[in-house]
Specification:
The protein is α/β, with parallel strands linked by helices. The protein has 2 domains: 1-101, Rossmann fold; 108-190, Rossmann fold. The protein is built from 7 helices and 7 strands; from the N terminus they run βαβαβααβαβαββα. It has helices spanning 17-26, 45-52, 62-66, 72-77, 94-99, 123-131, 167-189; strands spanning 6-12, 32-39, 57-59, 82-85, 104-108, 136-143, 153-160. The chain has a 7-stranded mixed beta sheet, with helices on one face. α1 (17-26) runs parallel beside α7 and α6 (123-131) crosses α7 (167-189). 34% of the residues are buried. The structure holds 5-O-phosphono-beta-D-ribofuranosylamine.
């Protein structure tokens, strides 16, 4: 029986290092294809990566995303089956969640349910982890529902928080975990 190719859209707002790992992982794959990069920030690093990798991009506008149709018809028209959030900083509107039930996946740079929610992104997460003298941190990959960082957890991996860690040094350790695991976890979902 031939497998159907899963068309993935990656949503990203920033540098796109996770998106890049995912793109590399699925290059030449018979299971999945990164068919679209969705970005809300003109000039974001992810857009250069997309150009270099010859992946179509969609630059989205706030008004249409939140008050319009959340780009659902556009994503459906492009045949998108699965949405991966890799450093995407806008909340996903209900219309998009309804259109892709259990098919929107996010990565968070901490061990949820701790250190999640509004305002908990990037440096803020690692700063809070260090301030609270946690011994471990890590990554959480989870389905997206209507609340920030709230959906069912699919996978977690942990790393130590070391004496003298700064948000930057901890971020680097956590990012290594993200790059090592995120593409494989996505593959496991297909
Ligand atoms: C990652 O740490 C991810 O956990 C968070 O945003 C960051 C994105 O980094 N949601 P990058 O753009 O993939 O380099």
């Amino acid at each position: 029986m031939s497998e159907k190719l899963t068309h993935i859209a990656i949503f990203a707002s920033g540098a796109g290092s996770n998106a890049h790992q995912i793109i590399r992982h699925f290059t030449g794959s018979a299971k999945a294809k990164i068919s679209l990069i969705v970005c809300n920030k003109p000039g974001a690093g992810i857009l250069q990566i997309a150009e270099k990798e010859h992946i179509p991009t969609l630059l989205i506008e706030k008004e249409l995303f939140f008050q319009g149709d959340a780009y659902v018809p556009e994503l459906q028209k492009k045949g998108i089956d699965l949405i991966i959030l890799a450093g995407f900083l806008w909340k996903i509107p209900p219309a998009l969640i309804r259109a892709y039930p259990d098919r929107i996946v996010n990565i968070h740079p901490a061990l949820l349910p701790k250190y999640g929610g509004k305002g908990m992104y990037g440096r803020h997460v690692h700063q809070a982890v260090i301030e609270n003298k946690e011994a471990v941190s890590g990554i959480s990959i989870h389905f997206v529902d209507e609340l920030y960082d709230n959906g069912a957890v699919i996978f977690q991996a942990s790393c130590p928080v070391l004496e003298g860690d700064t948000p930057e040094s901890l971020a680097k350790r956590v990012q290594e975990l993200e790059h090592a695991h995120f593409p494989k976890v996505i593959e496991g979902l297909l």
